[in-house]
Write a structure and sequence with these properties.
The protein has 146 residues and is mainly alpha-helical. The protein has one domain. The chain contains six helices and no strands.
């Protein structure tokens, strides 16, 4: 079998890509990283809307951040992995990890809004707001990646 320079380059490129490929835990960490940011920005946007504490540009900015972080999570979902594993199952595990710390994320968003706008937040994040976020993320992630 004749090996050409181009064939060798292809083999080396594939080897380098596999070296950079993520393990299951690293892959989940990427997903958690993006979704943590997305839910934080989403909660700030919701608190801003509910309490009319911020200008519309701030709320638009937060929703833009949510979209960008959601897109980052989708790109991480598509990332090459070292081993074959069920990405959908790992994604759901990552979401469950975040749902377990939801109360602290709600508190952090409330604190950020109160600090930035120097006024108390009277209307808090509801369970429906959280449910709406996760429905939006699940619809986007699972439909755009499968």
């Amino acid at each position: 079998m004749k090996t050409t320079v181009r064939t060798l380059r292809c083999i080396i490129t594939e080897m380098l890509m596999l070296e950079k490929a993520a393990s299951r835990e690293t892959w989940k960490d990427h997903i958690v990283h993006f979704l943590t940011g997305a839910i934080g920005e989403y909660y700030k946007a919701k608190l801003g809307e509910k309490n009319t504490l911020s200008v519309p540009q701030d709320i638009e900015h937060w929703y833009k951040e949510v979209r960008q972080l959601r897109d980052g999570a989708r790109n991480a979902f598509k990332q090459k992995t070292k081993k074959n594993f069920n990405k959908e199952k790992a994604y759901k595990e990552a979401c469950e990890e975040l749902k377990e710390i939801d109360a602290s994320m709600r508190r952090q968003a409330k604190y950020d809004i109160e600090k930035d706008y120097n006024t108390p937040v009277l209307v808090l994040i509801s369970d429906k707001d959280t449910s709406d976020f996760w429905n939006m993320i699940d619809d986007f992630m699972l439909k755009s990646t499968l």
